[in-house]
Design a protein that fits this description.
215 residues, mainly alpha, Arc Repressor Mutant, subunit A, Four Helix Bundle (Hemerythrin (Met), subunit A), three-stranded antiparallel β-sheet, 9 helices, elongated, disordered N terminus, Tscrpt_reg_HTH_GntR, transcription regulation, TF_FadR/GntR_C, DNA-binding
Length: 215
């Protein structure tokens, strides 16, 4: 699919590893109570132990793992409240980001371009195409908030539980429609509407995740 997408951020190895493990935990491939070994994970992913250890620390900070001295980590139990808390924080931060982006005079033409191109080519698009489009859509808004600390915190939340539904066609269709509403609100410079659209978008994601939960 021929869409020009900007590379707003390249995730370091530790974040990529954390994303892989997080996905396995949320999907149920790694069960609560299961022990993860630094050596086993580093061998499976063909990386050194250092980024794996750092990935474990990231997941510990998210309350997904319990670290054990020199013995790797244990997967903790998660429940609905984990996901509700996650989305509550994202809503608080992303609504502030879009408010600041609009007040900073964000150029909406880039969002319109990638949205229209993806929508036009949706039948031939892969899950990876959608992930890249979706990432660029959100990251572009965050960057235009012109607050590096806000951008950094949102990045730390990005590879979260929404992965479970991201490749499902009905979710993609809903997401595209919600993105269109966000674009229209930005074009109108209507901060109140934009905030409402972002809240709806993220609450829809939460609702879908809870309906598909595997823990």
């Amino acid at each position: 699919m021929d869409i020009e997408l900007e590379e707003f951020y390249t995730f370091p190895t530790r974040v990529k590893i954390a994303s892989i493990l997080r996905k396995a935990i949320f999907s149920g491939d790694i069960k609560a109570g299961e022990e993860l070994s630094l050596t086993d994970i580093s061998n499976k992913l063909n990386v050194s132990r250092t980024p794996v250890r750092e990935a474990f620390q990231i997941l510990e900070s998210e309350n997904l793992l319990e670290l054990r001295m020199n013995k790797g980590a244990i997967v903790k139990c998660i429940d609905d409240n984990f996901f509700k808390d996650y989305y509550e924080v994202r809503i608080l931060l992303e609504t502030k980001a879009i408010e600041k982006a609009i007040n900073n005079g964000i150029d909406v033409s880039y969002l319109e371009k990638i949205h229209n191109e993806f929508e036009k080519n949706i039948e031939s698009s892969t899950e990876e195409d959608y992930k890249k489009y979706n990432q660029n859509f959100h990251f572009y808004i965050w960057k235009n908030a012109n607050n590096e600390k806000l951008f950094s915190i949102l990045l730390s939340l990005w590879n979260g539980p929404s992965f479970q539904i991201i490749g499902k066609r009905n979710y993609i269709d809903d997401s595209l429609e919600e993105h269109k509403e966000i674009i229209e609100a930005i074009k109108e410079k209507n901060v109140k509407r934009a905030i409402s659209c972002v809240e709806t978008h993220l609450n829809t994601s939460l609702k879908n995740i809870l309906a598909l939960k595997k823990w």
